[in-house]
Amino acid sequence: DTEVTQTPKHLVMGMTNKKSLKCEQHMGHRAMYWYKQKAKKPPELMFVYSYEKLSINESVPSRFSPECPNSSLLNLHLHALQPEDSALYLCASSQSRDVYEQYFGPGTRLTVT
Amino acid sequence: RKEVEQDPGPFNVPEGATVAFNCTYSNSASQSFFWYRQDCRKEPKLLMSVYSSGNEDGRFTAQLNRASQYISLLIRDSKLSDSATYLCVVNRGGSYIPTFGRGTSLIVHP
Prior knowledge:
The structure holds two protein chains of two kinds. Chain A is mostly beta strands. Chain A is globular. In chain A, strand 7 (64-70) and strand 8 form a beta hairpin. Chain A has strands at 4-7, 10-13, 18-25, 31-37, 44-50, 53-57, 64-70, 73-79, 87-94, 103-104, 108-112. Chain A starts with a strand and ends with a strand. Chain B is mainly β. Helix content of chain B is 0%, strand content 53%. Chain B has strands spanning 4-6, 11-14, 19-25, 33-38, 44-49, 55-57, 60-65, 70-75, 84-91, 98-100, 104-109. Chain A binds chain B through residues 33, 41-45, 48, 56, 58, 90, 97-98, 100-107, and chain B through 32, 34, 42-46, 49, 87, 89, 91, 96-103.
C-alpha cells in the first residue's frame, strides 16, 4: 500500500476561522512533510517531521501550526489565514528524512475568503 | 542562481517522438536526485530516482552529470499519456531538504 490520504479534499474558510488539515499514511514511513503549492509553481516545503518530531520549519508563519500525533498521522492547524494562503496543500511521506523518495497525498485545495 | 533550474517549456512533441529535459543544480554537495511527474491539478508522483550510473525504466532514462551539475530525463516513443509537468528534485546540498525545480511542461499531440 503506497497511499497517502488527505482530508478534506476542498476547504473554504474565512480569515477568522480555525480549521485543520489531516494526512495519514500506513507505509511505516518515519518522515512526513507538508508542502504548499500555488498554481503553475512547484511545491514549496513548509515542514518536515522525522520520527514524530519537527525537524524542519521553512520559516512558515505561525498561523500554520503542524502536529504529528503519531507515526501515521500529520495535521496542519490553520488560524487567521490570509487570502494569499489559498493554495493546494500537499502532504508527503518517505521512509526516513534521509530517503528522498516521497509519496504524496492528493492534497487539500484551500480557499481563504 | 536558483538552487534547481528547469526550462519551463512547454515542449510540444508528436506521438512517438523522443524528448529530453535537463535540470541544473547549483550546489555541488547535492547527493540525491529524482524526477517526479505531476498531472494538472493532481499530486506529484515519483517517476524515478537518478543514480550516478544512470537509471532506465522502460521508455524513460535518467542520467546524472556531476561535472556539469545537471540531471536529464529522456522519454522515448512519447505517448499522449506522457503529457504532464516533469519536476526534478534535488536535496539541498549537504542537507536532507528536498528542493523542487519549477517543472517542465510536456505536451504530446497526435
